[in-house]
């Protein structure tokens, strides 16, 4: 499961679609609808929110916005809640790590996109950047 901290505009088609599917799974876990993936470390940051289901819904809504901008059709009816959610934090080190991870994926499946990938990536709109190394929940 990869729930990207970087802004969805940087994701290639495969990462955007996979991120949507995987975050829908995360939503199901946080809502208590499935027993699988309950202990997945990527969910830790959502669990710290006052309302994890609303927070993951806000994350999904931004992915759907990016899909709309590209002419894709993500089914927004699958988002449980679209209430406003508090911002979560993400460390600078995590964004640097994810940039490298994304660049490695581009090198294999979307090499034409690699030259346009900036060195510094903005976070997903749900996240506020704070100083720090790679997040504790990341499994490099």
UniProtKB/TrEMBL annotation:
InterPro entries cross-referenced by the UniProt entry: Pyr-dimer_DNA_glycosylase
UniProt keyword Lyase present: yes
Pfam family, one: Pyr_excise
GO molecular function terms attached to this record: lyase activity
Keywords: Lyase
Protein name from the UniProt record: DNA lyase
Species this chain originates from: Tessaracoccus flavescens
């Amino acid at each position: 499961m990869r729930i990207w901290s970087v802004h969805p505009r940087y994701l290639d088609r495969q990462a955007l679609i996979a991120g949507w599917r995987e975050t829908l799974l995360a939503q199901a876990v946080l809502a208590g609808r499935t027993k699988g993936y309950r202990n997945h470390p990527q969910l830790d940051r959502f669990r710290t929110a006052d309302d994890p289901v609303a927070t993951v819904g806000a994350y999904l809504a931004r992915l759907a916005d990016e899909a709309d901008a590209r002419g894709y059709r993500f089914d927004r009816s699958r988002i449980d809640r679209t209430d406003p959610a508090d911002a979560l934090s993400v460390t600078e080190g995590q964004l640097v790590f994810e940039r490298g991870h994304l660049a490695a994926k581009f090198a294999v499946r979307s090499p034409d996109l690699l030259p346009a990938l900036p060195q510094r990536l903005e976070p997903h709109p749900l996240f506020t950047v704070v100083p720090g190394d790679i997040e504790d929940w990341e499994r490099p």
